[in-house]
Amino acid sequence: MRSPSFPFYPRDWLASKTVRRLHSKQPTPLSAYMYLLCEAWLEDPAGTLPNDEAELISAARLTPEQFAIIWPQISHEFESDGNGRLFNPKQFQIFQKQHQAFLNGSAPKRNPKQNDKQNIKRNMKPIKKQDDKQK
Predict the structure, then answer these.
(1) Running DSSP on this structure, what letter comes out for residue 60?
(2) What is the tens place of the pLDDT at every residue in 108-118?
(3) Tally: H helices and E strands in the chain
(4) Exposed, middle or buried, 62 (CB in 10 Å: 0-12/13-18/19+)?
(5) How far apart (Å, rounded) are the C-alpha atoms in residues 61 and 92?
(6) Domains in the chain and their CATH numbers?
(7) What angle do CA 86, 79, 82 make, to 5 degrees?
(8) Which pLDDT score, from 0 to 100, does residue 125 have?
(9) Residue 88 to residue 99: CA distance in whole angstroms
(10) What is the strand order of the sheet 79-80 is part of?
(11) Residue 12 class from Cβ within 10 Å (0-12 exposed, 13-18 middle, 19+ buried)?
């Protein structure tokens, strides 16, 4: 059985030079939508975006002209919270579920033995070999 999800890291998407290059050459509703979801995930409060056109344009990495074309195609994916913020209902539901799991202590635990192995590897220095000529 396959997992219903896979790890996706919003910061990696936002920092990707490849994503940025592709989006700047040909922004699409999909790429703008993904930018907005990533920004929402990292926002405070989490899972929301400011309900402000200038902020949305910036978060979606679009020009105002591009936004005017693309926003009508993706705006139905966001709802207002009534307090000046927008959210994607599915994303917000996932955030709430993860947050509750964290509060209940059922979030994935770090493996201390694995961490120790990683720290040992990270702190190991390569042994310098001496040339036979220097002996």
Answers:
(1) T
(2) 555 555 554 45
(3) 7, 3
(4) buried
(5) 22
(6) 10-108 (1.10.10)
(7) 65
(8) 43
(9) 16
(10) 48-50, 85-87, 79-80
(11) exposed
